[in-house]
Amino acid sequence: VQLQASGGGLVQAGDSLRLSCAASGLTLSRYNMAWFRQAPGKEREFVTTISRSGSSTTYADSMKGRATIARDNAKNTVYLQMDSLKPEDTAVYYCAASNTYYGTRRAHDYDYWGQGTLVTVSS
């Protein structure tokens, strides 16, 4: 099983980025998917999650209105569109797959993790 996150980079405050997470070795439609992030010196935190079918999404308060999670099960890929980026969004972003109930924000409920992609937002 591999989750390959990509799309990170260096952007300026107010810019947008679209992250992708390509899955292999598993059937993505069987998993709730999520994005977490970890800033330097901080704990990993929940960003957003999407249900198996894509019909339900949940966002951390810090990203509401600025982020959109989506999935394409046919392509085994999950996306995270982030707009109006702020310097405090600087972090390594991880995608994760969970076989448990939808909506969990606990990292230990996720079975598989990608390697992370770095997003740096300059002011």
Report a brief summary of the structure.
The protein is mainly β and 123 residues long.
Q: What does this entry look like structurally?
A:
By secondary structure, the chain is an all-beta fold. The protein contains no helices and eleven strands. It has strands at residues 2-6, 9-12, 17-24, 32-38, 45-50, 57-59, 67-72, 77-82, 91-98, 112-113, 117-122. The strands form two sheets. Strands 2, 4, 5, 6, 9, 10 and 11 form a seven-stranded mixed sheet that branches. Strands 1-3-8-7 form a four-stranded antiparallel sheet, with no helix packed on it. Strand 4 and strand 5 form a beta hairpin. The mean pLDDT is 96.
Helix content: under 10%
Annotation field: number of helices: 0
Class by alpha and beta content: mainly beta
Radius of gyration: 13 Å
Low-confidence stretches: none
**Number of extended strands:** 11
**Envelope shape:** globular
* Rounded mean pLDDT score: 96
Strand content: over 45%
